[in-house]
């Protein structure tokens, strides 16, 4: 299981990627994260992140009918969200490279 402090910094970008792949709702986002190996991430963790993403205008929500109960909020990326996700991916690759260099005994950055 990945410690929550480690997840905190990357969940936003991961949620953006899930939404980019397919318009979806919070419960399904938590289930997809679990399927990708993030462990059990509660909707209580997902909702505050989605609210931040909405306030930052990175995602928008639409209400859609549900097969099982009340309407659900489905989230999709805005143009600003697509740009933010692209920036996240670049930053992630840089961080991933730096950490791997450190752990694999690579050269120090000069």
UniProtKB/TrEMBL annotation:
Coiled coil regions in record: none
Residues covered by the Transcription regulator PadR N-terminal domain: 15-85
Residue ranges crossing the lipid bilayer per the database entry: none
Superkingdom per UniProt: Bacteria
PANTHER family noted in UniProt: DNA-BINDING PROTEIN YIZB-RELATED (PTHR33169:SF25), PADR-FAMILY TRANSCRIPTIONAL REGULATOR (PTHR33169)
Annotated protein name in UniProt: PadR family transcriptional regulator
